[in-house]
Specification:
The chain is α/β, with parallel strands linked by helices. It is 37% helix and 20% strand. A 7-stranded mixed beta sheet has the order 1-2-3-4-5-7-6, sandwiched between helices. Helix 5 links the parallel strand 8 and strand 9. This is [Citrate [pro-3S]-lyase] ligase.
């Protein structure tokens, strides 16, 4: 054991990264595209015998060489990554793993949040973390025959989003609106939330929730143990819906509203899975036609494209007054610059 050493691997360490990739592939794992810290355990000949990575407060790409399994190396990798997380101020840590490996991580102090059998298990290091989250949501339970939910990133909040919320508010006693609080969008969460609140302030039956760490976007869902992109989308959708169904039970939600998706292949596939699975849990899935402007569907991607191209004259066709006013303000200038400098502003 004393012959092994563990250390951070920088992105420019080509040899170590090649060895990590070889180890991962040998264990049936692809390097995830979202990583911000990677470590490796080396033997006395500087071969990589174990590895693990982080992205935000999640652990990913955990693997031990088949030749060294049973030596307790993963315990050391997990201890190292946990220390890294704590040093960054993250005490609440999550991981995704194959169903077959969940028991091992249970022995290391991780607790199952939701399982999609044969695909993925989502785990956390707090025994009652998800239960406490559900209990907090339950304090906002509202009675009614029809209680709806919307999950929204709103990057930014458009007339399409507004139409969806207004329709749900008109057709239901209460609408629980979950704002994706994961801060990986071009527009920061604090701004996205504010624009949603301002844009829907005329509606009186909306209950707003930050999504917290349990509802994440497809952009950061781990792909490393999925065979292809469609498998990633399906696994994310099933896991997300598993969490949403538990939330719905706590809040008495019996409907979910989503917008029709004519432009994003990812969201369209997600909607198809939702339409099939939610009714099985007693939740009606209502997909409404996308609002159009100038003969084209309104989407946040279109708005970001117009901003990137500096075409502000047409924004009023796509944005409510509150969002438009923000992008005309001095406060929005750093965000506008960030969008203009982004390589990709369209989500497929």
């Amino acid at each position: 054991m004393s012959d092994y050493s563990i250390s951070k691997v920088s992105s420019n360490d080509k040899r170590s990264n090649q060895l990590i990739d070889q180890l991962l592939l040998g264990e049936g794992i692809r390097r995830d595209k979202n990583l911000d810290y990677t470590c490796a355990m080396f033997d006395e000949d500087f071969n990589v015998v174990a590895t693990g990575s982080c992205y935000g407060n999640t652990l990913r790409c955990l693997a031990v060489s088949s030749e060294h399994q049973g030596e307790g190396l993963m315990n050391q990798v997990m201890s190292h990554l946990t220390e890294v997380q704590f040093s960054q101020g993250n005490s609440h840590i999550f991981l995704y793993t194959k169903s077959s490996a969940a028991r091992f991580f249970s022995d290391l102090g991780f607790y199952e949040i939701v399982r999609i059998e044969g695909k993925v298990v989502f785990m956390e290091n707090k025994r009652s973390g998800f239960k406490d989250y559900i209990d907090r949501l339950g304090t906002n339970k509202k009675e009614g025959d029809n209680v709806a939910a919307i999950v929204m990133n709103a990057n930014p909040f458009t007339l399409g989003h507004l139409t969806l919320v207004e329709k749900a508010a008109t057709e239901n006693d209460m609408v629980h609106l979950f704002i994706v609080s994961e801060d990986v969008s071009l527009i920061p969460f604090s701004v996205r939330k504010r624009l949603i609140l301002e844009g829907t302030s005329h509606l009186t039956n909306i209950c707003y929730h930050d999504s917290g760490p349990y509802i994440i976007s497809n952009a950061t869902f781990p792909s490393y143990f999925q065979k292809d992109d469609n498998a990633v989308i399906e696994s994310h959708a099933l896991l997300d819906l598993g969490i949403f169904i538990k939330i719905s039970e706590s809040l008495g939600i019996n409907r979910r509203y989503v917008g029709e998706e004519p432009t994003s292949l990812v969201t369209a596939l997600y909607n198809d899975i939702m339409k099939e699975r939610l009714p099985q849990a007693g939740i009606e899935c209502i997909i409404i036609p996308r609002k159009e402007a100038a003969g084209a569907p309104i989407s946040a991607s279109t708005v970001r494209t117009l901003i990137k191209e500096g075409d502000f004259s047409h924004l009023s066709n796509f944005l409510p007054e509150t969002t438009l006013r923000f992008f005309q303000s001095e406060e929005a200038q750093p965000i506008i610059q960030k969008i203009k400098e982004a390589d990709q502003v369209i989500h497929y």
